[in-house]
Specification:
4 copies of one chain form a homotetramer.
Chain A (H helix, E strand, L loop, with lengths): L3 E2 L4 E6 L5 E7 L9 H11 L16 E3 L3 E2 L2 E2 L4 E6 L21 H8 L15 H16 L4 E9 L2 E2 L22 H16 L6 E8 L13 H10 L4 E6 L10 H4 L3 E3 L5 E3 L7 E2 L2 E2 L4 E7 L9 E4 L5 E4 L10 H23 L4 H9 L2
Antiparallel strand pairs in A: 1-2, 2-3, 3-7, 4-7, 5-6, 8-9, 8-10, 10-16, 11-16, 12-13, 14-15, 17-18
Helix pairs in contact in A: 1-3, 1-7, 3-7, 5-7
Chain lengths: ~375, ~375, ~375, ~375
């Protein structure tokens, strides 16, 4: 049941990289939401392979079919099933690794756990599964947009190339205007060249994606185990190739004094309680405080490289693994919409959960039924 | 339902900092486990306040009572309820903040979410709740010990003071021999002095806890959303004051090339599949590969400081918050057993979940019933 | 995790019949609910042993302690833990069955499942656990009362003695005025004598409890698997000694034609959509339709009787089991508050779940945060 | 999230009666199970419409496509998605009820809950959804067959026509040899004529399905809330048109004395602990005891009849509803495979859950990893 995520806004994804199809069932989306298919397709297109020469050349239309849950253009409160057919599977690319364990892939661990594996393109462990998350995340974004919540991620680091400017000083919309998805055009160009050179050398490189969430009111998130940032962390860490997560001051916060780190409160002109600083990243005690939520997610370099590597086969015999197939030299440009989708799924769930947190709300609510 | 954690090894904690008691119900611990009360008390004592002058002077015996689930010294497969009475609550210390929002505490967010809050010592949001996690984690450790799994955490950073040595080059047992819980005696002494000076200035400081898990066989962890490192990340991020999590190469991995980062496989003298390096941190595709699992957790400085801070009250009026009460100037020494406990809870759950992953196991299993 | 119940209004019970205590943790009760301890005690007293000579003579005060989740007389949205100490455990009464399997008890099945068991008074399988459900159910009743929902159960059958009148033709309040909890005073007296004679013969007898829920608006309950009546059925069947559940027309409905069974709709004077008849028992498609909800629950005779019975011991050797201990000759009088409590827990959960079913509600809701 | 069922063997169904497709995702089926597509199709064919003149004439091939989770003819431990296209939707049959509430259908309650509904053939509330359950149940049956568990349901009652013989005295295999699925050929013929006459009168009739499960070892099922019979009850009550559930002695057990009802233990020739009688229906304390498990499920008459009925429309105005479309005059013949499927899903889940109930099992299990 580990392919199911969420408490109230629940999704269940399925599908292997080279099987007939992948898809997702969203169970728990409220009824009465306008279902914008163009927007969902737009989000899928942002994640789609083959967008530029620095992404995999695998060609997938990634067009989806709505199988259920939508009627007269509106969600019905019933499960929404979305299907994406796999069209460009060159399974023959993988015959050679049917018995080999590719270094830093999930080949060995799946074999150890299940006693077998669908080796074609990594099967279930392939990042292809994330297309289903992006589709479901797009529905969550539609639900959140009604509440005034916006989510914007961008590439802040590729290898050692970093964006130093704080997000407030950039026009994040610019991120969508280059192949790297970095809002600083100069650094974006450097990153593009760097990734392209890495690709030419048959190597891959890691990176970092930053994400900013605006418009979340105070009160979203749950105490103790399901803290908002804990759920965001799990969601990000569940994305292929992720190695780390931090929010607000993050690891740098460990070096600060309380007198430097604390966010003092004040009341703004509109009478709203605000904080002077935002080391908390918009979350205190696991619950949103109304400030911007921001977090960073670190991605390792893609494991598939076009170089020979030592490994062993399923019999434990030494083998040389030669890179084949079509892969991204750097995942972060395509990871941006995935990070946004997972953030949207977490926030949609927390938004719904918050509605049953207080009995006065319940009573008010009840009176309208 | 956010105070409940786990799929099969499930716990539910309860209690406020200054209420009559805190406790935990563990539902899903297998029957037939020898219940070692001394070990559980030992773990609680490691987390207990008042261990040295660099920890809070609140005095809590933290003695627990077993209310259910154990008979003839063995677990019965029924819920195990553990109760810890609160004994040293100086609630009067908190009367002054009944209407104030302490900076970077959860006062404001709980008020915003629930419309009220138990302000005494932070109520439910207090780290006192973690005593219940440590008690439950101790049971998980007993279950894991049978499988040869050991968990050892230690303080690797306080402010800017860092342990540079890799864990393999230190005797981690030394961590328990100093008040800071750092396995490098020299740095431990520097950290102690640094924390103590910070305390005297009425300030607080952050830090980092590293955790090493040995003896986990290949195959633990679940694909897609419940990846082993995703669950570890959520578990760590759910601990009070945590701002970041990374495993294996972590954020540093984002700067590497695939050719540097990949862990090549080989077969060792015992015919076991191993990796030459361990950038993966013992986890590939969310499933353990049999190597050591290691991860790092960043803690912010404690929010309570003995200095005046600007804030607002529940009416939005400006107030000056003055630090009172008894608090840790640095949480990481006491966080070590909490990190271990949460890791144990995640691994115990994954251990049980892995037992139903493969039908051949099921059949073998069945034959023994 | 089978001692946990509910999706949003979640409870976790613990405790054995002769252990130190039993209790429950309610996680998910909304904040801001006035916590009426007298009412909760009143509900526990209704279930309490020793109410008359036709109930077990075990003496339990069944007084509860609130350990968490309540502050200033109100729920805080945090887990509510309630503790009930066991005071009158005559464990010596059970020494003789330490190695015996009592017919139609859970002794053998627990032993087969877990390899051991707490044999004292049935341990975890004892109906004593239901006191924790009644305490949690009382909180659910407080939440439902705010919504105008009332739950009233009563004994409709003991052995072959049955109440023939439909519930609409009786004053259900009278049920609480006799020891049997039957609203028909004449039949109640017959039932009392019948149970008492059965008791004197050292035997036990079964019965049926009917339950009526009024004030539930249209829209509670979820499609497909979590239908309102499916959850009610599971809840009732989870009560000790229950053998059957039916709602609305029930088993009798299987003998009817659609033309007899269908409930035609009309609009009443207040413009509310109603049904002329109520074979549906207030539920259509698993969702409440605004009519009275009613269902029936069948209880087998108590397994413990004061007569010798053939059985085997843990070694498979034949033994004679002689009834000892203090037991109810008929469970239904004390089952009435348990049935009500379980119904309340199901309905409280469905009430909360319904609040996130529709996005328009969400938007309205949101505007108030 | 109410379209998701199961704790470890988890399924999520989707689809409306007249949407493009219905389907199911099974998440939690162990790896290494031989995937028998012919058997799954065979089970779907048993539920398929148009099998005889006493079932609906809607023509659906009910052929399924495997979208994921199966490789080289074996399950992979990853989600198994099955898709069934809807082919014969005469939506025009339903235009007339777009604004009408059909008596005893879910039209009104869905409208009240969600503010809108897919009225075509009942949308999500249609029994068409059960095809997805039958497909998932067939996988569960394959898993259970490995453990020697067999499930056989049959029609025991149509209207007032009842099978009086106990199941032990019939050849249950005969049930599949007639259109009614009753193992008593004579009564089957009477039932067929009775249903056919009812159909000709444009009416419908209810019935009862009995189910027998053999081969379940002692130990399956969980204490307290997830008792085996409680889960079976919920599963049966979740099937469209079900009004009641009883197991073992059921409602009749309420009329018995303990001395009549108790099942005395003995040790059989093979040294196995058995019971002389089986009033318990193979379940004691919610856990299987190794005897046959049997239970009965009552179905109301189909709500759609070919007669005029009074009702109201979405505006509350009185209307006359005239039966159209193609429907079963009696659901029980086609309900037989659905009852079996739901029983299989419950038992597969309990089988997996039982494997983590005892630490000795865990240790033995572990040694094989």
């Amino acid at each position: 049941m580990s392919s199911t995520y969420g408490t109230l806004f629940k999704l269940s994804t399925f599908g292997e990289s080279h099987g007939p199809a992948i898809g997702v069932v969203v169970d728990g989306c409220p009824a009465g939401l306008s279902f914008d298919t163009d927007f969902i397709q737009h989000e899928l297109d942002r994640r789609k392979p083959g967008q530029s020469r620095i992404t995999t050349q695998r060609r997938e239309a990634d067009e989806f079919e709505v199988l259920s849950g939508v009627f007269d253009g509106q969600t019905q409160g019933t499960p929404i099933a979305l299907l994406i057919r796999n069209t460009d599977q060159r399974s023959k690319d993988y015959g050679h690794i049917a018995e080999q364990f590719r270094p830093s892939h999930a080949d060995y661990t799946y074999q150890a756990k299940y006693g077998s594996r669908d080796y074609r393109g990594g099967g279930r462990s392939s990042a292809r599964e994330t297309a289903a998350r992006v589709a479901a995340g797009a529905i969550a974004k539609l639900l959140l947009a009604q509440q005034g919540v916006q989510i914007q991620a961008y590439v802040s680091q590729v290898g050692k190339l970093k964006v130093e400017k704080p997000y407030q000083e950039m026009n994040l919309a610019l991120a969508e205007e280059n192949a790297v998805r970095c809002p600083d055009p100069e650094i974006a160009e450097q990153m593009f060249q760097y990734i392209d050179e890495t690709r030419k050398r048959g190597d891959s490189i890691g990176g970092v994606v930053d994400c900013i969430v605006t418009g979340v009111p105070a009160g979203w998130g749950e105490p103790v185990f399901d803290k908002l940032h804990a759920e965001l962390g799990k969601a990000m860490l569940s994305i292929n190739a992720v190695k780390g997560f931090e929010y607000g001051s993050g690891f740098a916060g460990a070096e600060l004094y309380g007198s430097q780190h604390n966010d003092e409160f004040y009341t703004d002109a509109d009478g709203r309680v605000r904080t002077k600083t935002n080391q908390s990243g918009g979350i205190q005690g696991g619950i949103s405080n109304g400030e911007d939520i921001y977090f960073r997610t670190a991605f390792k370099p893609v494991a598939t490289i076009m170089q020979d590597q030592d490994s062993v086969d399923v019999h434990g015999q030494p083998v040389t693994v030669s890179g084949k197939g079509r892969h991204d030299p750097c995942v972060v440009p395509r990871a941006v919409p995935i990070v946004e989708a997972m953030a949207a799924l977490v926030l949609a769930d927390m938004y719904l959960r918050n509605q049953v947190s207080h009995v006065e709300k319940s009573k008010a609510e009840f009176s309208k039924i």
